[in-house]
TrEMBL record:
Membrane-spanning intervals of the chain: none
Molecular function as annotated in GO: dioxygenase activity
PROSITE patterns, sorted: VOC
Domain VOC span(s) in chain numbering: 3-108
InterPro entries assigned: Glyas_Bleomycin-R_OHBP_Dase (IPR029068), Glyas_Fos-R_dOase_dom (IPR004360), VOC_core (IPR037523)
Keyword vocabulary terms for this entry: Dioxygenase, Oxidoreductase
Name of the molecule in the record: Extradiol dioxygenase
Pfam families: Glyoxalase (PF00903)
Amino acid sequence: MFTGAHVILYSQDAAADRAFLRDVIGFAHVDAGDGWLLFKLPPAEVAVHPTDGEPRHEFYLMCDDLDGVLAQLAARGAEITRPVADAPWGRLTAVRLPSGSELPLYQPLHPVAYDL
């Protein structure tokens, strides 16, 4: 029925964040015109969490080896913005985008759905 998902990151410096995703993260991309880059993402999954607050959406990049990914990103100039937090269900941290926002990174320690 569906062929994919389209994720939108809003940015106050879209050109710099696009360059970061292209050059530091290394995502393959197409140019939809006028430098409007669309990036190929790894396989994905979606979860629905309960909240008592306002509904919101989050976007995490998942990996199998968070320490290895952090070493590669740091070597490419990425700023790691928080220490790795270990939880029973996974390991979390984030890198700084050029616009100043954070891009969360996540190593799941639970079964995943993206390879079903």
